[in-house]
Amino acid sequence: MAVAAAEKTKNPSSKHNIEAMREAFYERIAKKDMAPLWKVMRSMVTKEPVSRCQPHVWHFDDVKSLVMESGGLITAEEAERRVLILENPALHGESRVTNSLFAGIQMIMPGEVAPAHRHAASAIRFVLDGEGAYTAVEGEKAFMAPGDFVITANWAPHDHGNPSNKPMLWLDVLDVPAVNFFEASFAEHFDDAMQKTTRQDGDSLNFYGSGVLPDGTPAMNRTPIINYTYARTRPIIARMAQAGDIDKRHGARVRYANPVTGGPVLPTMSANLALLPKGFKGEPYRSTDGTIFVCAEGKGTTTVDGKVLEWGPQDVFVVPPWKRYSHQAEKESVLFSISDRPAQQALGIWREGK
Ligand code: 1HN
Question: Which of 18, 195, 308, 345 has its CA at 20 to 30 Å from residue 157's CA atom?
Answer without folding.
Answer: 345
